[in-house]
Design a protein that fits this description.
The protein is α/β, with parallel strands linked by helices and 127 residues long. The chain contains 5 helices and 6 strands. Helices cover 40% and strands 24% of the residues. The strands form 2 sheets. It has a 4-stranded parallel beta sheet with strand order 4-3-5-6, with helices on both faces. A two-stranded antiparallel ribbon has the order 1-2. Strand 3, helix 1 and strand 4 form a beta-alpha-beta unit.
Length: 127
């Protein structure tokens, strides 16, 4: 065994996991832009089926240690594929909620009021 590596088995035989394993994100193009600005490498998918296929492909790569997945793509995986991912120690697959652009006007206004109150130090009332 090489120093810095731990050996795992995923049912298909031993697998090496480096401490410097990669993080990848499977998300929609709209989400990928923000992640790319933060320096996080993304795999973009436009449809749930395309996203599910990317998840399966990336999960089989030995260099990926953490796989962040937008929930619409994770939900598109078959139950069998989800169970297989859960049984494998590497990569750690973490679904996350994608952005929602269906906020109501009241929610958007409340958010703006909160930002303003933090910036100026007191609550304001929008007209």
């Amino acid at each position: 065994m090489v120093a810095g590596f731990r050996s795992f088995t995923d049912g298909a035989g031993p697998r090496e996991c480096s401490v410097s394993s990669l993080v990848r994100v499977v998300c929609r193009p709209e989400t990928a832009l923000g992640l790319a600005l933060a320096g996080v490498p993304t795999a973009r998918a436009s449809t749930p089926r395309e996203g599910a296929e990317l998840i399966v492909e990336l999960a089989s790569r030995p260099d990926i240690g953490v796989l962040l997945v937008e929930d619409v793509f994770y939900d598109a995986l078959s139950d069998t594929a989800k169970r297989a991912l859960e049984r494998r120690p590497v990569p750690i697959t973490v679904p996350f909620p994608g952005p929602s652009w269906t906020e109501s006007a009241e929610e958007a206004e409340a958010h703006l009021v909160e930002i303003l109150s933090r910036a100026i130090g007191y609550r304001v009332r929008l007209r």
